[in-house]
Every structure is written in C-alpha cells, then in structure tokens.
C-alpha cells in the first residue's frame, strides 16, 4: 500500500538539522544542532510525494514540481517543534557557559541569565536575569549576586533539550518524511542552478570594497568589503514584476530572508516588497 498525501507535500530530508558550518575557505566547524534548532534547520529537500488536491492559489507551484525534484524550502518545516506535553517548560538554548544561559518555552517566552561586565569599586561579579514574552517584552527580572539570580531562576520549570517533538515529522514504512505546504517551497534546482517558484526572488548578496579613506589605521592597506543588507543581485524570480536576472534590486532589510543552500548564502525577498532597481 502506497501513502499519498491529501493536500500537503511529503519531503525527504536526510539530515534535518545541520551539524557543520563550512567557511568559504573550506574550514569546517562542528556545531550541536540541538541548540537553537531554527538556526540549524535544513532548507533543502527531495520531493517524495505530491498532494492529491491542490488549492487553486498554489497550482502554479504544483505544476512546476515532480517527485524526485530537489527543492528549497522554508526553515519552519523542520524548526516547527513542540516541547513535550507542557508548553510552559523551558528548554536551554545555549550550551553550558559559565557566564550566560538562555531558555525558551513552547509559548515563545524567554528566560536569560548572564554575568555583567566587572565594574571597578564593586566586589565580585554582578549577575542579571530577565523574563520576556514571545515579543521580547519585559515581564520580570532581577539583578544581584550569582546566588540571588540562581534563586530567582529556580522558579521556572526547566527541562532538557531532548524533550521535544517535530510537528511536521512523518514516519511511514520505516522511512522518515516531512510534511509541507506547497507555499513552503520557494525554489527548485535545475541543471545545478536554483530557480525561484512562487513569489520569492532569489538574490546573491551584493558586496563592495570600502574605500581606503574610510578605513581605520589598522585596516589600511587591506581589502575590506561591506555586504549590503538592502539590496541583492537577482539569480531567479520576479518575472511577473518585470525583473530580470543580474539586476540589483533594493528592498527594506526588515523584509529580507536569509537562507543558506549548500553552504552558500542567498537573499530571498517577496517580489511584492521590491522597492527599486539599481543601475
């Protein structure tokens, strides 16, 4: 018996959480993906099955996809997870560090404890603790010595990093799959190149050399680049808006989405949020 999804796509993601960071020079850093999973979520996948029913608004995406295609997907597919049975329990998001600890619960609330910079004239190290809601609005806090802050921290239910489950994970006949909506897919790989589908424009970051007259003394004689956050060079997408490949477009950096495909960083922007073109 073969399973076919009714209105979602089934994806195959061999490694859902990335555990390596590779620099442009080839240097490899190993990271623990159990911390800040939204930062380590894989965003490339292979289509395992297509939906039987398609919403008319998503048909233009569906028509471009086939089983076996390599696609670029939203990080939320993997990063959408739940904390056990109690959303109020806090999970640590930082590795053990003697100077800072951060915790988050299933409601998006944060508890942070950290050491303050040492100040002359004051004995020992002062500590601070903050409790904020999902919108980072302050709820409660404390400042004092380490013992006082630890006592304040003890009021919160703290859990372990293994007490969570992925909401889009799906297991069938001993194979692992991930459920996604069609509008979670914004790119497809064709002939080694990423091609935009949906309403996203895929861009390369734009970098420029900083004129030496603006460099501080320590950097004079060196090549220093600035990477713009308000523009990008189009790789694919935006045809409905008359945009073309290699054009440099501008946008509000608050709307910018940053994604890393195969160790290369790309900028994604909704085509309706493009504000202009640089000549």
Explain briefly what this protein structure is:
This protein is 7% helix and 41% strand. With 279 residues, the chain is mainly beta. The chain folds into three domains: 9-80 and 167-190, 10 Kd Chaperonin, Protein Cpn10, Chain O (Roll), CATH 2.30.33; 91-153, no CATH class; 199-278, GroES chaperonin (10 Kd Chaperonin, Protein Cpn10, Chain O).
Report on the structure:
The protein is mainly beta. It has 3 domains: about 100 residues, 10 Kd Chaperonin, Protein Cpn10, Chain O (Roll), CATH 2.30.33; about 60 residues, no CATH class; about 80 residues, GroES chaperonin (10 Kd Chaperonin, Protein Cpn10, Chain O, Roll). About 5% of the residues lie in helices and about 40% in strands. The chain has 4 helices and 22 strands. The strands form 5 sheets. It has a 7-stranded antiparallel β-sheet with strand order 13-14-1-4-5-15-16. Strands 20-21-17-18-19-22 form a 6-stranded antiparallel β-sheet, with no helix packed on it. A hairpin with a 5-residue loop joins strand 2 and strand 3.
Chart the SSEs and their pairings:
Layout: E1 9-12, E2 20-22, E3 28-30, H1 37-40, E4 44-49, H2 59-62, E5 70-73, H3 76-79, E6 81-82, E7 91-92, E8 100-104, E9 110-115, E10 127-132, E11 138-144, H4 146-153, E12 165-166, E13 169-172, E14 175-180, E15 185-190, E16 193-196, E17 200-209, E18 225-236, E19 248-251, E20 257-261, E21 264-270, E22 274-278
């Amino acid at each position: 018996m073969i399973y076919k999804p009714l209105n979602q796509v089934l994806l195959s993601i061999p490694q859902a959480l990335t555990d390596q960071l590779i620099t442009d020079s080839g240097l490899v850093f190993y990271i623990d993906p159990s911390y800040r999973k939204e930062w380590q979520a894989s965003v490339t996948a292979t289509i395992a099955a297509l939906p039987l029913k398609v919403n008319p608004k998503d048909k233009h995406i569906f028509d471009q996809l086939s089983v076996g295609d390599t696609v670029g997907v939203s990080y939320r597919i993997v990063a959408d997870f739940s904390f056990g049975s109690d959303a109020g329990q806090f999970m640590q998001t930082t590795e053990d560090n003697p100077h800072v600890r951060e915790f988050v619960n299933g409601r998006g609330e944060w508890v942070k404890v950290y050491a303050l910079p040492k100040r002359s004239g004051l004995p020992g190290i002062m500590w601070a603790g903050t409790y904020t809601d999902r919108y980072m609005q302050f709820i409660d806090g404390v400042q004092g010595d380490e013992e006082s802050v630890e006592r304040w921290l003890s009021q919160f239910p703290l859990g372990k990093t293994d007490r969570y489950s992925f909401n889009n994970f799906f297991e069938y006949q001993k194979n692992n799959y991930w459920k996604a909506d069609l509008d979670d897919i914004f790119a497809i790989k064709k002939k080694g190149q990423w091609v935009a589908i949906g309403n996203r424009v895929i861009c390369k970051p734009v970098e420029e050399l900083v004129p030496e007259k603006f460099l501080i003394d320590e950097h004079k004689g060196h090549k220093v680049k600035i990477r713009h956050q308000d523009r990008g060079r189009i790789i694919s997408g935006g045809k409905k808006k008359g945009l073309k490949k290699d054009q440099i477009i501008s946008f509000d950096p608050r709307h910018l989405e940053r994604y890393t495909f195969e160790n290369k960083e790309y900028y994604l922007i909704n085509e309706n949020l493009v504000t202009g073109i640089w000549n």
